[in-house]
Amino acid sequence: MEILDGRLASQTIREELKLKTAQRGVEGKKTPHLAAVLVGNNGASETYVNAKVKACAEVGFKSTLIKLTEDITESALLSTIEKLNVDPDIDGILVQLPLPKQVSENKIINAINPLKDVDGFHPVSVGKMIQGLDTFIPATPYGIMLLLEHYKIETAGLHAVVIGRSNIVGRPISILLSNNTQPGNCTVTLCHSRTRNLEALCREADIIVAALGKPEFIRADMVKGGAILVDVGITRVADPGKKSGFALKGDAHFESVAPKCSWITPVPGGVGPMTIAGLLKNTFRACEEQDDSSEQ
C-alpha cells in the first residue's frame, strides 16, 4: 500500500507557481489576484476560505477576502460579483458555497465572468470541459487529476467507480477520468444514492473515487485487492479524546481499507491540499489569459 500524499504533491505545485509568479514580477507583469467571497459565518466555509487566502500568500498571489452577512440579498451579492467582474486587477473570483437559502447558487455562479471562473462551475467552463477543450476545471476534480499525474498512476483501461454525482466533484471527475488523456482513458461507472448493487460495483473497481460525504462508508469488503482509492469525503465526527472535540473522517474506513489498496489518499492530507493547488493553478492561468487579452 502506498499513500497518495496530497500535501507533498501540492507543495511541489506551489513551489512551481511561486517561481513563476516571481518571474512575472521580474518581467513587470501583474501579480495573480484572487477575490474570495464568503457569505455568513459557517465555520467550515471560513476555514476553507482562510486556507485558500493563506495559500495565495505563500505563492506570492494577491488575494481579497470579501465577507458578507448571512442576510444579504441576492441582488446585493450579484452587484458584488459584477464589481469584481469589471475590476481589471481581479483575475479570479471564488464564491464559497453553500450560500444562504434566499440566494440562488445557480444565479451567482452564472453571474461570474467565465474568464474569471477559477472554480470552474460556470456553464461555459463545464461545457468546454465536456468537449475536452482547455478551460477552468473544478478545483477538487482538477486536484485529483494532478495527484494521479504527480504519482504517475497509469489509469488507461481501468474501471473507475465514482460514488457521488455532484456538479462539484462526482460528475466532473467522471468526465475527466473518461477523457482520452493521461490520467484518463478509464471506463467509468457513476454511482449515487439510487444505485443498485453499489457494493458489488465497488468490488469490481480498479479505482474508487468516494465523494458521498458519509464518514467511513467504504469498508474493506467493498474493495478488491490492489485497488486505487481516492477519498474526497471529509466530515467532522465527535471525538471527546481530541482537544478540538472532533476528528476528521473520510468516506472510507482507512484502517481496514488501506491494506487492500495499491494506492490510497489519507484524510486529511490527501485531496484537500490538492483542491487548493487546483484553485491556485486556475488563478495563475486566469492571470496569464488576462495578459493575452490585454495584448490583443
Please give a quick description of this structure.
The protein is α/β, with parallel strands linked by helices. Helices cover 42% and strands 17% of the residues.
Written description of the protein model:
The structure is a single chain. The protein has 296 residues and is of the alpha/beta class. It has 2 domains: 28-113, 3-Layer(aba) Sandwich (Rossmann fold), CATH 3.40.50.10860; 139-272, NAD(P)-binding Rossmann-like Domain (Rossmann fold), CATH 3.40.50.720. The protein has helices at 6-26, 43-59, 74-86, 105-111, 123-130, 139-150, 170-178, 198-204, 254-257, 271-295; strands spanning 2-3, 33-39, 62-68, 92-95, 159-163, 187-191, 207-210, 227-231, 235-238, 246-249, 261-264. The strands form 3 sheets. It has a 6-stranded parallel β-sheet, with helices on both faces. It has a 3-stranded parallel β-sheet with strand order 3-2-4, sandwiched between helices. A two-stranded antiparallel sheet has the order 9-10. It is globular and about 55 Å long. The termini are far apart. The relative contact order is 0.16. The mean pLDDT is 96.
